[in-house]
Amino acid sequence: MADITHIQKNMSSTLTPAGYYQRWRLIKDTLARHTVVVGGLGIIGAIVLIFFYLLYAVFPLFLPAHSETVASYSVPEKSLGKTLLLAEEEQNEVGVRFTDQGKAVFFAVKTGKTLLNESIALPENTQVTSFAQGDFANGIVVYGLSDGRAVVVSHQYTLSYPNNVRVITPSIDYPLGKEPLLIDNKGKALEKIAFKKGDDVSTFVAKTADQRMILTSFEKKSAMFGEEPTLERIDAELKTPAKDVAYILINKDHNNLYLASSTGLLSYFDIGDKAAPVLKQQINVLEAGSKITSMDFLNGDLSVLVGDSHGVISQWSMIRDAKNQSAMQKLRFFKASENPIIAINPEARRKGFIAVDSTGEVGIYYTTSERELIKESVANAAPVALALSPRANSFLLEGANNQIHVWQVENEHPEISIKSLWQKVWYESHSEPEYIWQSSSASNDFEPKMSLTPLVFGTLKAAFYAMLIATPLALMGAIYTAYFMAPAMRLYVKPGIELMGALPTVILGFLAGLWLAPMVELNLAALFSLLMFLPLSVMLFAYCWQRFLPKDYKEKVPEGWDAAILVPVLLLGAWLSVQLSIPLENLFFNGNMRSWFSHELGIGYDQRNALIVGLAMGFAVIPTIFSIAEDAIFSVPKHLTIGSLALGATPWQTMVRVVLLTASPGIFSAIMIGLGRAIGETMIVLMATGNTPVMDLSVFQGMRTLSANIGVEMPESEVDSTHYRVLFLAALVLFMFTFVFNTLAEVIRQRLRQKYSSL
Fold first, then answer.
1. Of 255, 352, 526, 672, whose CB is crowded by the most CB atoms within 10 A?
2. Rounded to two decimals, what is the model's pTM?
């Protein structure tokens, strides 16, 4: 601004028209220079701000989990018995402990103040001989009794808001009625018990005092004409040595039963038919010298977590092999401690779990990311009971010194790690480790799978096939248009091709998905015959032109208009290719090329595939590459070409050894800008790829790109959720891709410019 003021003062002292014009021009030049500088700095600033905003959204994914102690107090109502189970409700305000005297003690989590004492409806003259948690989500537990009966209880919490203040009222309910259910017809004490309740089926498995393993199922049968439904009882005995059974687990679908001995022998039963359970597999899940000290399901009941006496926690799941046979297999393990693992509690909504060893050291782990998230020494005494809250943001630990410790946990994104994002992960129900992106499902037990590798692969695959089609066509067209084509013809061709770049990509994607993809599927052989016969037809025409056409006729064609003559040749060649494709397909591919690929080569065909993306996105990228490359070639100084021709070089030699070398920085820039356009393209790949995040190099298979994935899933993601932040991470990866490619392109362009600037 000081420069402008100085110039204005000088203008006021000079009034001649010529001087006034020169000084006014100087002011405009200064303003333009400052505007360009401000604009350039603004663009750089905007890019930097975008980068840091993406980094700001992604950074919380990699923050470590942490925990802190909230309170510590004596066990509420200690005189009412030893704790069999600790639990707390979703708001982390009310806890409950079930005791071996048949009492449910509700207390305030933060203070330990007793809120309610409830006596379980146990029959007189019976003793509690076993206890188990039936359903974590519904708060169901079961008491096994000395007379072969069992009582099913659930702890419930009612929310109310008197005077706009949240009040949680605990209560006890009996899902199967207060009257105890007879489990063992012989009336023997139930030493071990497991229970699962479904909508219509309730299943008990128990180990009796006389060393039998029994299965008892109650199925609700609907009655006709409005009568009350009845319960049908089914009894069965499991053929296994009961004295060795230390742990019993029934899955939520009531069709799989797992029995484990302390020595590590795990038996898997199919109990789909309750009257005839079948032993499917027995496997040793421990190394020699270890013993099972704790066992529980992971959320979803697809995997079993086994803790042993050496502090190792292993995850075992049912896996189908190549012959479609199911077998238990170890997916992963955690070295949690040097001491025995006393208790394992799974998270209610994710694939994580909490474990405590015999010294009171607590660890929180996540299975698929294989992360140890938190490790804290909570109690100085052996643990009695461990409880993880439903939201996994708090836990209770009761020690042998009759103290309950309350801890708060902040663990927002445990499922994210370098391994889960970029490496193969062995997910439950999958036969081997894989790269998978699957962020949502209709199942409550679904685990989000957020590997970015398939998306990066899809992005590069789409860009590769698009550039494979666009680059040769655009560069060859640019070379011919800029160097060989007549100027009058160039006036029409160049703007026409550049006008292609104005077509909205959403229209191209729409046409590719709804018109091009079905047409290519029906005429696949014709497409491949075009690739073969069109070049042959051009070469045959050129040969005939040179050998058989009289010279007088050739000289009538103006120089630079040769391409116009090829238009009908190409049209005729395309028509012949389509016509010949039908008998060729019948002869070589049994009349169906897609079916032949599938049966003979094992190559599947997806209608919206990389071939469609290559054609559609190549069409979109061609104008960009063509325009920049053509300008670079056309801008080569004429004295270079004239000098080369004067020295005896042919036009092609001049083109290859002079023009292309001189224009190489611009040509390279054209290719890299086209590549950046292909990598960042959204709408075409969104509508023409099928959006299947698979890793397959086949041109006949679809893919999902980073940009398309962001466009599809960002509107559906919960703000600040793991899914939301991983999408921002995908955007950051895409940003870094383009930044790295553009930086390399600029470095290479500058070196080419320096190398050939002396020509």
1. 352
2. 0.85
